[in-house]
Design a protein that fits this description.
Layout (H helix, E strand, L loop, with lengths): L1 H13 L4 H20 L6 E4 L2 H19 L16 H23 L8 E3 L16 H17 L2 H26 L5 H6 L10
Antiparallel strand pairs: 1-2
């Protein structure tokens, strides 16, 4: 992932993006460094996502990042008209998403891994953001992508954010299947919470 980010940063600098997109790229770089540095494998596992499924998820994320940051001649149409508020609004969303992600990670603790995994001592966390959202880390990542699209204001970036959404909708379904087979209380928890966004989904 970090190699891909380095490639994206190099391409972005080549195309001389606006200051807002440079800051957005820096946020993503910092986020992904934190993600990789803190990614623990934890203890023994009862089950985990297949290598093929993990690879597909990574391909989708790489493609989404590419669409968000790379400028392609002939595909630079905008879904938002020029406005000086795009960058502040998008960056504010990205900052909120980053803090939300950290909050979720603190509550998830050693249960967290970068892939769908059920550990032998796995716990069903329902504290912090998990009280009302079942997948707050996925919410944070999709919000990061949406914030980037708002800063860019280009259709291509919005498509990249949509790819992120598709990737995490797919992943949460895999994770929810695994959790429902592991915890007897899962169905009750599912009925009292939202998957990604309260009141919406």
């Amino acid at each position: 992932m970090l190699v891909m980010v380095a490639i994206y940063v190099g391409l972005c600098l080549w195309w001389k993006p606006r200051p807002g997109m440079i800051v957005a790229g820096a946020v993503w770089l910092g986020f992904l460094i934190f993600w990789n540095v803190t990614a623990g494998q934890g203890g023994p596992r009862k089950s985990e996502e297949t290598a093929r499924s993990r690879a597909l998820h990574q391909y989708l994320l790489n493609g989404g990042l590419l669409l968000m940051f790379v400028s392609i001649p002939g595909l630079r149409g905008r879904f938002l008209p020029p406005n000086p508020w795009h960058a502040p609004v998008g960056l504010a969303l990205m900052a909120a998403a980053t803090l939300f992600h950290i909050w979720a990670r603190v509550h998830l603790g050693r249960n967290w891994t970068g892939q769908v995994t059920i550990k032998t001592d796995h716990q069903l966390v329902r504290s912090g953001p998990y009280r009302f959202i079942r997948h707050p880390i996925y919410t944070a990542l999709v919000a990061l992508a949406l914030g980037t699209a708002i800063i860019s204001a280009r259709w291509l970036s919005l498509l990249g954010a949509a790819v992120f959404l598709v990737a995490y909708l797919r992943k949460l379904r895999i994770e929810e299947t695994a959790l429902s087979q592991t915890f007897a209380e899962w169905e009750e928890y599912r009925k009292k919470s939202w998957a990604l966004v309260p009141g919406l989904y």
